[in-house]
Amino acid sequence: DYAPYAYPFTTTAPVVLFADGESMTMTMNNPCDSATWTHAPTFYDDSIVLIDYDEQFASVCAVQLWTLNLQNYANVQAVFIGNNADGNHVWSLSGDATLAEPVIATRMISQISTANLKQAMLEATVDNDVFFADIDCFDTQSPPMICVMDQGLIGTHVELDGEYQQLRDVTVHEHAVWWKEGIASVVDDYYIWLQIVITSHPPYALNNNSSSIMAQCLLHAFHVLMIPTQCSANWYDIDRFMWVCQSGFPTKLATRI
Predict the structure, then answer these.
(1) pLDDT at 226 over 60
(2) pTM over 0.90
């Protein structure tokens, strides 16, 4: 990644699509060259700009230059880079040491998050409304991202695989909650959260939108886990003590606590 690496204040602003969603070519709306942009600076002022990641332009210039161009072109508040593949996966954006360090934040968001964000923006436009987003820092006492993988030979629970991101300002039993984003009517959302079954044993579980417990962290009662990654390979799909990985948060989730 590249600077800035920390944000002293939460950034909240409306989200706009780079070039209002128009095609990007080398001669028109090229993120590497602001002279090719078709929208005036006022279109981007005071906004978070969502740009689709594109290998063609990333091979010409570092994504860091996309951020710098937007920063210098208008009063842009932050930049979202929408991954164009990989489902829930995000990865670090390589910087370029020969370039200046941006002062506005850049975050990659997953392919699924990008699709859902664009849908939300479309619905807001239809309702004559504006979609806002914010950029903030996670609770540093808990991992911002948890990777889940079914390492069984036949992948019985491969639907649980993926990257679960910490939800901002959401806790259960004073512990963070992690979320793998889905697509409405296509793929369930999944959550990892702390379920108290026995007061001396804080278990985690994983669930989906149907509020069905999908997997549980099973350890001896004297093990006290502060975060679900401490469960290591001790996840099971049987009804015992657990950190919970489940779907159906937050309303149906409450019925299980």
Answers:
(1) yes
(2) no
